[in-house]
Amino acid sequence: MKIRIAPSLLSADFTRLADEIAMCEAGGADWLHVDVMDGCFVPNLTFGAKVIEAARRCTNLPLDVHLMTLEPEKYFESFVKAGASVLTIHVETAPHLHRQIMRIRELGAMAGVTLNPSTPLESVREVLVDLDLLLIMSVNPGFGGQRFIPQAIDKIARARAMLTSAGSRALLEVDGGIARDTIAVCHAAGADTFVAGQAIFGAADPRAEIAALRVAALPTT
Ligand code: DX5
Ligand code: ZN
To answer: Is 84 helix (H, G, I), strand (E, B) or coil?
Structure first.
């Protein structure tokens, strides 16, 4: 099973965004994870289309945009125009989830859905076949550098089983507290795509850390 490593730009040095992105590419990153926070759904405020567009001008890597915003549909069009490849919305912010997924796909992006740690998987069951990506949050969203919540492991395993039984081909991503000591167990539980912020940008050699995470995800024993 191919795995994807998606460095989270939230932990990058924004005074050197182009260099940080080039470093991710040189280290073999598969995607770049872009965290959009609105200061309402989550207690932190980041950025929007302008930064997505700046990142797009630096790289051809897929931009994996995670919308932590109320009324996420307000941003679909401008974010896709800015260069987003994947738009992932929170089920807690999307009462018309099926309609939102269809709209994202109509705009030409991959459609992802995510859930807070306290939100049951049952809330996405009916849309699994329509998804390109299911993201399991392993921290409460809002900040980088938080501690991995271990209950996420069982949730990943249950999500994998649900995707299989629904016949869904969605990717299964995990976000929050992913590092060398947590990535293997998430992979073993069924995740194939891994977001990592602090583990990469806080490492002594961030470029080498991307490769180290990939190795750690796939233990030989
Ligand atoms: C948290 C964000 C994450 C965050 C992950 O709200 O969604 O993408 O950047 O950062 P780490 O890997 O440091 O937990
Ligand atoms: Zn994220």
So the answer is: coil
Residue from 30, 35, 64, 192 carrying the catalytic annotation: 35
Per-residue confidence of the chain (221 residues) as pLDDT tens digits? 789 999 999 999 999 999 999 999 999 999 999 999 999 999 999 999 999 999 999 999 999 999 999 999 999 999 999 999 999 999 999 999 999 999 999 999 999 999 999 999 999 999 999 999 999 999 999 999 999 999 999 999 999 999 999 999 999 999 999 999 999 999 999 999 999 999 999 999 999 999 999 999 997 75
Is residue 35 part of the annotated active site? The answer reads yes
Rounded to an integer, what distance in angstroms lies between the CA atom of residue 145 and that of residue 119?
21
Instruction: Choose which residue among 64, 67, 146, 186 to substitute to test ligand 1 binding: the one with the highest number of ligand atoms within 8 A of its C-beta.
Output: 146
The ligand that comes nearest to the alpha carbon of residue 176 is 1
Question: CB-based burial of residue 90 (10 Å sphere; 0-12 exposed, 13-18 middle, 19+ buried)?
Answer: buried
Annotated catalytic residue within 64, 132, 175, 192: 175
- How is residue 140 written in tokens? 């409460």
* CB-based contact 54:60 (threshold 8 Å): no
Which one of 5, 9, 11 would you pick to mutate in the ligand 1 pocket, going by the greatest count of ligand atoms within 8 A of its CB? 11
Residues whose beta carbon lies within 6 Å of some atom of ligand 1:
8, 10-11, 33, 35, 66, 139, 141-146, 175-178, 195-199
Tell me how far CA of residue 182 lies from CA of 143, 201, 219, in angstroms.
18, 17, 12
